[in-house]
Design a protein that fits this description.
501 residues, mainly alpha, 19 helices, 2 strands
């Protein structure tokens, strides 16, 4: 169970929240308190609707475009990229192009998210997007592997601050148990991008020969151009920080800030110094959460980078492989949104994370066993993709729910996502070309890392439950004797904070 940290309230007989003539020590004969609660609930519902319409749609669109750009290398591959650039069929040139993106993406994720606290999100997020859009277009003009690797590395640099930055911005507007559903809506853009990317690549590949360019080049050129245009428009649509938002009237903004303060309690870290930074980086929850995300992200990056190739090697043509990715991602989309809604509804994370682990494990087992017929292995793709896209948003929100607010949440989110994305370095090097189409190493590693994710989720659940019990028993109350400036900067280490399970 979760315990919200509510600020202490003192009776105020003159408060406008109390109807005239209704005193606290008299029975509510006319049900006026219920009427006030009803008005408050309606105000909050209107506020949430306004937030949903102003915060989420543009970030959803940006992430969809981002993921199309990130995954289009896999689509270009089966349209002849390797042959055009002179990459030998059984070499690991494609894998090198993949992890040239991942290394800068991981290295710059934490610093980029710390910069977000100093820069307006509309400038930061749209600027990053413009940068990687230009790099995406440049991939369509490369003539060799070196040029492709350089473009991919720059893309990784620009994209490094995008996802954790969006996660932090969304989380700054919603209470802890409103966040999962909203983040999953945002994250589901990646799932739809998997379906949309395959269909768009199928259409763009038909431009083969136009302007003297091959079809795979048009995939990069057109998709990169779309990204640049969307980035310019996005600057005017991305929401600022809650304290600066202009789409709310003064009363709505006051309600927003009041409900956020009540939800967060005293679990804040608004000042960063060496002690706070070390406290954050040595927090066991962040490391365990990062390892869980590592296991999940391996599956996701494997699906994005190799699913079209695997489907083609199961006997489908290049066009059929592109089209057959669409239903896989659509089913994953429905699963992710449904699970997110239930997770917020029951205020619980662990059980839903394990649901994703179990489903993905079934899929990896099918692929590892090389089950016949081809339809069985196609089902395995459904299971892996559905399971991993249940896991990933749940793990991110679970981590952010338990890091309080301020710098610890900024650093912790970036560390989890950045460290977890190191799994792409694994997935990009275990699907070895000469092992096609069975890929025993790739499927075996996927199965093992999925088990790792399940173990880490279980450790996190029991560890957090034990810590909540210690705090209920007053075993962390000695921290209340700390100097006020230190006590108010403890983040989730404050004795009054309770962890989401």
């Amino acid at each position: 169970m979760d315990v919200y940290i509510l600020p202490e309230k003192t009776p105020d007989k003159s408060s406008s929240d109390t109807p005239s003539g209704l005193e606290d020590n008299k029975p509510d004969v006319y049900g006026l308190h219920n009427s006030i609660d009803l008005v408050d609930n309606l105000s909050e519902r209107r506020l949430l609707l306004k937030l949903d319409l102003n915060v989420l749609p543009i970030l959803f669109l940006l992430f969809l475009v981002s993921f199309v750009d990130r995954s289009n290398l896999a689509n270009a591959r089966i349209e002849g990229l390797e042959k055009s650039l002179g990459i030998p069929p059984k070499s690991n040139g494609y894998n090198i192009a993949l992890f040239s993106f991942t290394i800068p993406y991981v290295l710059f994720e934490v610093p980029a998210n710390m910069l977000l606290k100093k820069i307006k999100p509309q400038w930061w997020l749209s600027g990053l997007m413009f940068g990687w859009g230009v790099c995406t277009m440049c991939q369509g003009f490369t003539q060799n592997l070196g040029g492709l690797v350089a473009c991919r590395a720059l893309m990784g640099f620009f994209e490094s601050g995008f996802v954790p930055g969006c996660a932090y911005l969304i989380g700054s507007y919603y209470k802890r148990h409103e966040f999962q559903f909203r983040y999953s809506i945002f994250f589901s853009a990646a799932i739809l991008a998997g379906a949309f990317s395959g269909f768009l690549a199928y259409l763009l590949a038909k431009m083969d020969g136009a302007g003297g360019y091959e079809g795979w080049r048009w995939i990069f050129i057109i998709e990169g151009l779309i990204t640049v245009v969307v980035a310019v428009v996005a600057y005017f649509l991305i929401a600022p920080w809650p304290e600066e938002c202009k789409f709310l009237n003064p009363d709505e903004k006051a309600l927003l800030l009041k409900r956020l303060a009540a939800d967060r309690g005293r679990g804040t870290m608004n000042r960063i110094n060496m002690k706070a930074f070390i406290n954050t980086l040595t927090d066991w929850k962040i490391w365990v959460g990062m390892l869980a995300y590592f296991g999940a992200d391996h599956s996701a990056s494997a699906v994005v980078s190799f699913q079209p190739t695997i489907l083609r090697e199961l006997g489908y043509t290049a066009s059929q492989a592109q089209i057959h990715t669409i239903p896989v991602f659509m089913v994953a989309f429905v699963l992710a949104i449904t699970v997110a809604w239930f997770s917020d509804r029951v205020k619980h994370r662990y059980g839903f994370a394990m649901l994703g682990v179990t489903l993905a494990m079934i899929g990896w087992a099918i692929e590892l066993a090389q089950a016949d017929p081809v339809g069985a292995r196609y089902f395995g793709m459904f299971a892996i993709t559905g399971g991993v896209y249940i896991m990933m948003p749940v793990l991110v929100v679970w981590n952010m729910n338990n890091l309080g607010t301020g710098y610890k949440r900024v650093i912790g989110a970036a560390f989890q996502i950045g460290g977890g994305n190191c799994a792409a370095l694994v997935s990009q090097n275990v699907f070895i070309s000469k092992e096609a189409p069975r890929y025993p190493t790739g499927f075996g590693v996927g199965f093992a890392l999925n088990i790792l994710a399940g173990i880490c989720c279980t450790v996190l659940f029991f560890g957090l439950r034990a810590e909540n019990k210690r705090r209920d028993q007053g075993k962390r109350d000695h921290r209340l004797a700390l100097p006020p400036d230190e006590l108010d900067n403890l983040g989730d280490d404050h004795p009054s904070f309770r962890y989401t399970l």
